[in-house]
């Protein structure tokens, strides 16, 4: 039996599976392993139960099974996958969605046609639509219910796919390889892109499926639970970039700079500015209650100890809902220059 014949047989069973079967993790994992996985050497050493073939999906079975269990219940009519390569993961995800969504259209996007068995798989998945050659630029601002991003893993490429399509997803946007640190040299790669998407979508639920957190592969999911709207909005990323430029212009040439903010936000800002080459004196706290962990990795300074120093600048990076309260703590120190920015800024400083 050929790989294509075996894989089509698996997908036929997926399409006809009972509700009990399709929601059973073992059933799903067994189906994925029978379908076939590309034999990445390190993966095969960890799990020898899958059918390994060059014509398999490039996925960690456990991670992909978790995603498929999520897809089993979502209602969608439009889906797009950016970066499909041979199409093996695409066909499986399409089957999971098509099972409950007979009006589905599944667009497959890539810069070159490497698909195997497209016509054979399309006979059981008529919703498949090959859009090759093309990129996310060709679908800019189009709203799909489901978006899967798995193309260029450099930062610029992954972020462009998100800005063109991902943020306009009505239900779900997924990123593959969110822990692919082998692309870190590409301006932070998809790892950085995923982190920034999380910052850009604070009110959206996130799910991460990973057997090797912060090491290899991994699938990240952002979910829009509102019945209207999209995962994010056009202009959000651009607005953050504009705010970062304004902020950096404001601190240019300033001396005696301290950072004041919620604990994690202030440390993130401290690190971002330090990497930028800005000389930071330390983290400001108004009293010891704001430093309960007794942080040792940063120079933590009480504001009263620097209030009389000439030309002090405090970068305040509280989110907007906490900003007034934070400012009230500084009201007695009118000689201090306060530069206000939001809690997102640090994540986008280059």
Structure description:
With 350 residues, the chain is of the alpha/beta class. 36% of the residues lie in helices and 15% in strands. The chain has twelve helices and twelve strands. It has a seven-stranded mixed β-sheet with strand order 3-2-1-4-5-7-6, with helices on both faces. β8 (257-260), α11 (263-276) and β9 form a beta-alpha-beta unit. α1 runs antiparallel to α3, α1 packs parallel to α6 (88-98) and α3 (25-35) packs across α5. The model has no long low-confidence stretch (mean pLDDT 91).
Overall average pLDDT: 91
For the biggest sheet, the summary is: 7 strands, mixed
**N-end to C-end Cα span:** 53 Å
| Radius of gyration over all CA atoms, rounded | 24 Å
| Shape field | elongated
Beta-strand fraction estimate? 15-25%
How large is the count of helical segments? Answer: 12
Label the structural class.
Answer: alpha/beta
Total beta strands: 12
Q: Order of strands side by side in the largest beta sheet? A: 3-2-1-4-5-7-6
Low-pLDDT regions: none
Helix content: 25-40%
SSE order: HHHHHEHEHEEHEHEEHEHEEEHE
């Amino acid at each position: 039996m050929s790989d294509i014949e075996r894989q089509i047989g698996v997908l036929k069973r997926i399409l006809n599976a009972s509700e009990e079967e399709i929601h059973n993790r073992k059933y799903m994992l067994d189906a994925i392993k029978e379908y076939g996985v590309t034999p990445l050497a390190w993966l095969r050493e960890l799990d020898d139960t899958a059918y390994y073939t060059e014509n398999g999906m490039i996925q960690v079975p456990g991670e992909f099974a978790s995603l498929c269990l999520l897809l089993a219940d979502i209602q969608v009519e439009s889906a797009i996958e950016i970066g499909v390569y041979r199409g093996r993961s695409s066909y499986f995800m399409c089957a999971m969605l098509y099972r409950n969504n007979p009006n589905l259209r599944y667009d497959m996007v890539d810069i070159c046609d490497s698909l195997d068995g497209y016509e054979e798989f399309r006979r059981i998945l008529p919703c498949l639509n090959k859009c090759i050659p093309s990129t996310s630029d060709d679908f800019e601002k189009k709203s799909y219910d489901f978006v899967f991003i798995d193309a260029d893993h450099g930062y610029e490429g992954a972020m462009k796919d998100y800005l063109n399509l991902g943020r306009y997803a009505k239900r779900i946007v997924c990123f593959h390889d969110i822990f692919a640190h082998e692309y870190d040299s590409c301006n932070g790669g998809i790892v950085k892109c995923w982190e920034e998407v999380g910052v850009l979508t604070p009110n959206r639920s996130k799910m991460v499926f990973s057997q090797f957190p912060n090491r290899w592969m991994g699938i990240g999911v952002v979910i829009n639970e509102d019945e209207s709207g999209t995962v994010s909005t056009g202009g959000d990323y651009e607005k953050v970039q504009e705010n970062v430029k304004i902020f950096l212009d404001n601190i240019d040439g300033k001396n005696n700079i301290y950072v004041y903010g919620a604990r994690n936000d202030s440390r993130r800002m401290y690190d971002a500015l330090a990497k930028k080459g800005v000389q930071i004196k330390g983290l400001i706290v108004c009293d010891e209650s704001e430093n309960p962990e007794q942080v040792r990795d940063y120079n933590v300074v009480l504001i009263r100890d620097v209030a009389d120093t000439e030309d002090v600048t405090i970068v305040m990076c509280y989110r907007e809902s906490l900003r007034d309260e934070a400012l009230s703590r500084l009201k007695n120190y009118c000689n201090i220059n306060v530069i206000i920015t939001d809690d997102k800024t640090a994540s986008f400083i280059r």
